[in-house]
Amino acid sequence: MKTTMLAVAGLTIMAGCAATTQLTENERQTRAEAMLKAGFSKGNKAMAERVVQQDETQALCSKYPESVPEAIASRIQESQQATIRYPASGNLMGDWRQGEKIAQDGWGMRFTDMGSPNRPMGGNCYACHQLAPDELSYGTLGPSLYQFGKARGYTDEVRRYVYGKVYNAKATNACSNMPRFGHNGILTEQQIKDVVALLMDPASPVNR
Amino acid sequence: MADPMKIRATVAGDATEVKVLMSHEMETGQRKDAQGKTIPAWFIQSVTAAWNGKTVLSAQWGPAISKNPFLSFKFEGGAKGDKVKVTWIDNKGETRTDEATIG
Amino acid sequence: MSSTMRAAVAAVVLACTAPIVLAQGSTEKGIEQYRQALKEGNPAELWEARGEDLWKRKRGPKNVSLEQCDLGQGPGVVRGAYAHLPRYFADTDKVQDAESRLVTCMVTLQGFKEEDAKKNPFSAPGRHSDMEALTSYVAAESKGMKLNAPLAHPKEREAFELGDYLFHRRAGPHDYSCSTCHAESGKRIRLQELPALTDPGEAQKVFTTWPAYRVSQGSVRTMQHRLYDCYWQMRHPQLDFASDTATALMVYMAKFANGGEVHAPALKR
User: Fold this and answer.
1) Are residues C12 and C81 both part of a single domain?
2) Which of A141, A183, B62, C265 could join C44 in a cystine, given CB atoms 3.0 to 4.6 angstroms apart?
3) C174 touches A184 (CB < 8 A)
């Protein structure tokens, strides 16, 4: 992508005007929330409800978009850590081949995805992360996970960390951009185990 | 009736460069709709271009050409004010002819 | 995917360009080459032509054209109007973007019912959208001009503040906000680069390219559709066309994009 910078003369004046805050924080929140709700008049009602109602983590992270204060961050991490349900069997590793399919699949929870409730949802990991080296079409919003297990060691501790991270990323990073796949019911326990295997199985292409 | 084409023709040295945008769905016949039903093939099959009544381009197209196709070609000759006429015919027998003046 | 591939192949063949090799490390360069190859003949011009025709044609219950529509520069002035939107309009006492303003004109001048004017904002295969065509025409009449969306009126400033709030608001089953993808420079989803919309340099380059012909969809898509599509991807419900939420987000983005040259309708993936 070319990085032609266009002249910004005149912009400073505009920025100056816009900086004047005229609404109080409460007014701003009340009006924006009402506006958002009104804008989903034709959509799926249950879906709208879930978006209009933020949970505490979402509300706090929205309030501090730049960086969340330390005390609040630890409060979020604590509450989110408590949501993680590890498999009763203690086995955290599934099948990396299934994990790869889940990592490729972005299906689920869009308003056009409502017609097939029985179709498993995807994790869409490649949207944001590099994983197996053969897949060149990967995103960069998250860090590269290529050679994840190989670099960190194939230990119980790391496997447990990965399971927890996929289940609820906010438990270790309060306002992480990453969805809470287990906590929010996007991926099942078995699917999360498959994703753990994709990262942690020595035979997985991620660790080649 | 099909939407008009957008044709631009300009003299470039000894040749005339013609650029044509056509409005067409160009269905391959291999895609399925949301219900899983095959969408029937519908594409431009033949394109001809004439300069002052003389054919300067004749092409056979198939379903591999994109939707709303863009065609660019050059032919020898042509002068400002001459007419270039482009015609397409699709597999349903629908056709469209548009004309432009060389600038 | 198949239609994207097909379009890409055909466009490259038609433009007689050398085949594009996507090697690791030069992926973005490859995509840029592909875009250059497509730039030659932007099908958006078909929309512009149809939009101009619609603008001038007598339509609606009152059987009049849109030629007296006030897009902010006075009745009938199309030239440069898009570069000064969204803005506050006294007659509706609202901040409006091009599309919601076109709805207003279709209602007040042509006598359409509001729900009819808003009925078909996005085209589908085999179904044209007049709104897409009209917006393409209006946008093209500001090509080359610098975007200068005003922020002087209290309602414009209020829309900016509400847009700021909404841009950062995280919600839904994936905790996404606009800023999840559009706050940092140099990031991608898969191979799609993501502009940091609060960075003037980047906002000026991209905000000013909508509406755009999207090769993957075989159609022009407008800024209203861009927002609708983002909310879809964010696992939010479908955003109403011409909603105040959409306007507020546009006002917010326009502030950073101001000063950028209008290149709409552009051509995109």
Assistant:
1) no
2) C265
3) yes
